[in-house]
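Standup notes
- HV: blocked on the assembly model, inputs below
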Amino acid sequence: MLTVKTPRRNAVAALFLLAAALAAPLSSTAQDSIKRGGTLVVGYPQAPRHLNGAVQSGVATAFPSTQLFASPLRFDDKWNPQPYLAEKWTLSDDGKSLTLNLRKGATFHDGKPITSADVAFSIMAIKANHPFQTMMGPVEKVDTPDAQTAIIRMGKPHPAIVLAMSPALCPILPKHVYGDGQDLKSHPRNSADVVGSGPFKLVEFKPGQRVVLERFEKFFLAGRPYLDRIVFDITPDASSLMLGFERGTMQMLPFVTIPSDLRRLADNPQVTLTPKGYEGIGPLNWLAFNLEKKPLADVRVRKAIAHAVDKNFVTKALMAGFSKPVDGPIVPSSPFAVTDLVRYPVDLKKAAALLDEAGFKPDANGERLKLTIDYVPGSDDQQKTVAEYVRAQLKKIGIAVEVRTSADLPAWAKRMAAHDFDLSMDIVFNWGDPIIGVHRTYLSSNIKPIVWTNTQSYVNPKVDELLDTAGSVLDPVKRKAYYATFQKIVTDDLPIHFLNVVPFHTAASKKLGNVPMTIWGPLSPYDEVYFK
Amino acid sequence: MRAVQFTLSRLLQGLALVLAVVVLNFVLVHAAPGDPVETIAGASGGMSEELKAALRVQYGLDKPLAAQLGVYLGKVAGGDLGYSYFFNLPVAGLIAERVPATLLLVITAVLGAFVIGTVLGVLSSRKPNGLLSQFINTLSLVGFAAPVFWTGIMLVILFASVLPIFPVSGMRAIDSAGASGFTDALDVLHHLVLPALTLGLVYLAQYSRLSRASMLDVLGSDFIRTARAKGLSNRVVLYKHALRNAVLPVVTILGLQFGNVMAGAILVETVFNWPGLGRLAFESVLRRDYPTILGVLLFSSIVVVVMNLLTDYCYRLIDPRIKTS
């Protein structure tokens, strides 16, 4: 039966891919009907600190930054790099240099030409200032043999370098503006008179309120962008966002996860609701174990807990079917994800047996041990409700769990940084390449008093070795093989019980054409977006 | 001479109060768990240890708390509120940008509540057991009992979703940039209706009840009987003789409550996405943006002190007896 089923499923998948390819926004038939003009209002709850994505990561800054600054490359919806500022690019056979051949005639918003010197300056600025230190870590220098050619030189083969050329990760800054010697993290031009070369230029930035951008008429891709203006409207209250969207004052809501909102949006005939566009970010919702705590140091206890949690209940009941269960450290949409993982189907008897084996026998009240669980505040649908569900489930196997509420994100982050937790829910992003977003959680060298490091205190020399190797192997097939072994080991060691993919969705008005659905989705340039 | 002395002593008191507020706020804000660098790291999706240490040094967070307080007080004395950790912009600028929105909201709400509340109170005091009085009474009770955020959300649902005549969010239409003065003013007024109503409703209820009670009290006194005996019309007795006396307690409450109104503005501004100081303060707390929180609190405490001073002046205007006492 199984042998019959598999090829058919593949055929269906192939058909879908074909359909997706036909519907791709770049097809010429679509371009004929594209209209120019209109103001797109995008609603989002978090305020960006400033607009310069070269020195500030995170979603809130990436929205405006990817519109303001062009990057060497961009990506389609299947992880293929596409020309952007660079017309051509070549990764050397030894993987230690990436040559970028820049487009001729491209200019910044202030009219000055973009040269290889700007690229060299930007990449070294990102290496020095961007929070993702592993991203440009191996870069040693950037050679500029001529104005149109930049060669990134690395100390060791660095397979993530091509992905690191993405709009959200590698904004090209004008050296004549940002290279004045001031500290780039607090540069005044990060918030005012921002000059980039992206499809839109800055009109107004009101901190904590909105960012207004307008079309850059001399954008290097002739004829684009189609929109006149983009407004990023910062509305912290989720229900205000929904009302604003339903009334039509906003036409796009990215990163929606709340099940009741998603249901309402899915039922709205005037709305396109899509989960596509979050493959690059790769958001995972998980239950982390603190391996420094005595009962949790025993893998049998961790496995017992895993067997008690029903991921299907979490995704189908708690998240109204908008989310999908996940079993490993790499999101299923990543090219490095594998299906050969150690899984933990719900089995309360087995869980109890594992606890017995570990020496945690029930007392007179049926209680075996006491634990606490933390969760990231401010994301109830992914975190709080799941933490409460975990508490209820663990009670069934004799583990009394106290849910610890943190007043706000800084309070929770402090607990994580201090390793002051037993169990904690967490949301962590893959950020495209495992080197950027996955390694940090499992390398024993990254056990630090900092949130979103290896706060689980997970140590496995074999995993350290696998990640180090996978981080410098160029051949994607070999690389994937290393990551496959890594994924199997991690799911067996279980420092983290992986629960589900965070169901980020983009809601857009049906009037909007070419809603961004590449791997970076709403964090990519909106030069092709238009109003029908 | 006496007025000058009065003003001076009040200003000194006010200054001491503001200083106490600054120190207390400083200690309280730093006592909250978590720190701004962790928050910035959080907004960035992770950050290296070196970068965090560099940020701590940049913000002076590596120094002991007492030293930080000393530096802060010195700066404030020189009129420098410092730089926002989060936005990397001068706090004074951030506050200045938000002040007009909050003042517009708070003053509209309070003055509206004061005028309408007093009128309602007077109206219902004319026939204390009449139908109108009962109606106003019930309304005030509901208005007083309902929490601001609940009223706000109910109004949002009613007017924004069911009967979409008022905007629910923001201070200006999103695509309004570059509108002319008059259109812009109309736009702002349109956006102001719901938040001002929400914030004003609680105070309206209080003022109407207070002025009603105080009117009833005054209406029973001898000088009113004298006025009526003189043959003055009911209108003159009510508005010229009674109201002028009855309004004093309302003014007292108004002055005292100004601080409360500023606090209520935080909720209203959050619900209606009104770009004011309250929202800035609330979000700055979540970001542990110490300089901004302290700046907003300092500004609010100054406003409250000034308002109390103004209330005292209003007393002297309304009731000449206070001048001599």
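- HV (later): unblocked. Chain B touches chain A through 53 residues (CB under 8 Å). Chain B has a mean pLDDT of 83.
- Next: hand off to the docking folks.
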